[in-house]
Amino acid sequence: MVIVDVLALAALAGWLYLALGHGAFWRTGPGLPERDDPPEWPEVAAVVPARDEAAILPETLPTLVAQEYPGVFRVIVVDDASGDGTGETAARFTDHVVSARERPDGWAGKVWAMSEGVRAAGDPDLYLFTDADIAYAPGTLKRLVAEAEAESGTAGERRDLVSQMATLSIRTRWEKVIVPAFVYFFAQLYPFRRVSRDGARTAAAAGGCMLVRRAALERAGGLAAIRGALIDDVAVGRLVKRAGGRCRLDLTRDVVSRRPYPRLADLWTMIARSAYHQLRYSPVLLAGTVLGMLLLYAVPPAATLAGALAGPAPAALTAGALAWTIMTLSHVPLLRFYGLSPLRAIALPAVALMYAAMTVDSARRHRTGRGGAWKGRTAVPVQSGKTARAATATCAESAPRRHDDRP
Questions:
Q1: Which residues constitute the signal peptide according to the record (predicted)?
Q2: Where are the alpha helices (DSSP H) in 36-172?
Q3: Torsion-angle region of residue 31: left (phi > 0), alpha (psi -120 to 50) or beta?
Q4: Are strands 209-213 and 247-257 parallel, antiparallel or unpaired?
């Protein structure tokens, strides 16, 4: 029982730090504050990368085009070599539809499509990078821009990136199991309050809704600086913050993803396609991640059970039960945000083990040449050996380890 006691105490120490010293990651937050209108509304260009999205665009694109905005606002849809009539569908709602040119070597598919939208946008003051499956509540664009233009902080500066994490679909049984945990783990890796704090090293964004100041993006090197990034949102956040930009990240109900994930296999693929990329294709980081997840999520319930069977009040029972309790309580706010029963939080250890399996599977897919596969192609043309490391070098350079990289 000595080993079990030590592991249980280590898990408890980890959860005490996460709960008390890790940027209050478990809090869903109030969202964007109310701001006064800026003296002048800047020009905004929304860039929507779209590949085989003809089915979903009629549900989402009208909500973006219909945003009532006092300044100049254009919606640019980038048809990324679609085979289902995406371009024709988008043209029903916006006059600005461009076809992406052939993707150069070393560029991830989505980042290349984003850059094609930037090329077509001219010189707006702000880019709104958003996804084809994202729907916007009325007034969302005005609130985003008002937050970006508000002079705040100690120096009274404006924000260079305002990002909103979309509310994801939880209509199916598996979505209700996986999605809240997905947001929970993201917030654990990149606490929203740390991202939004000036001077904090933590940097991230949510790709469904990223309002980025053009001058700040160009000062940081532009999208070419993250051309190989499979996780484009985190890369953009790091890029802007590393260049001295001020950022804000929130969870919101005003931005909603309409993308369904009806099967476990769909959710599994969504997560596994990029997990190993985030670990920089490192077996050492993979092993550390899996062991860390086992310690934090598997040890508390296992120690609680072992301690209960061993006799009266052993250390394993006490430490394991406390760690499991803290873990459970930390998951409740997100479950409530999604309108789900708090009792689901008790099963978080099982869901975490599924995520660990997805991460291992991500490495397996990479080893078999299917890493980053999405919408019928791999995200970067060549992803093996030295070329894989070269393709991610720019992202790694723009986001040194001092930032809170995914473990």
A1: none
A2: 57-65, 86-90, 109-121, 140-149
A3: left
A4: unpaired
**Would you say 163 and 237 are in contact if contact means Cβ atoms under 8 Å apart?**
yes
On whether the CB atoms of residues 361 and 289 are closer than 8 A, the answer is no
User: Alpha-carbon distance 326 to 347, whole Å?
Assistant: 13
Structure tokens at 69: 């905005």
CA dist 63 and 389 (Å) reads 39
| DSSP code, position 78 | E
> Per the structure block, which two tokens stand in for 115?
């850059």
Structure tokens, 53? 């999205």
Q: How far is CA 177 from the centre of its chain?
A: 18
This prediction has a pTM of 0.88
Joined together, the tokens standing for residue 310 give 């061993």
Contact 53, 131 (CB under 8 A): no
Question: 211 φ, ψ to 5°?
Answer: -90, 115
Write the pLDDT tens digit of every residue in 43-68: 999 999 999 999 999 999 999 999 99
Chain segment 147-183, per-residue pLDDT in tens? 999 987 666 789 999 999 999 999 999 999 999 999 9
> For the domain bounded by 44-263, which CATH number is listed?
3.90.550.10
Report the 10 Å Cβ neighbour count for 97: 21
Which of these, 146, 246, 148, lies nearest to 198 by C-alpha position?
A: 246
Q: Where are the domains of the chain?
A: 2-24+266-398, 44-263
> In angstroms, what is the C-alpha Rg of the chain?
22
d(CA 379, CA 93): 28
In this structure, what token pair is assigned to residue 8?
Answer: 């249980």
389 has a pLDDT exceeding 50 = no
Q: Report the helix count and the strand count for the chain, using DSSP H and E.
A: 16, 10
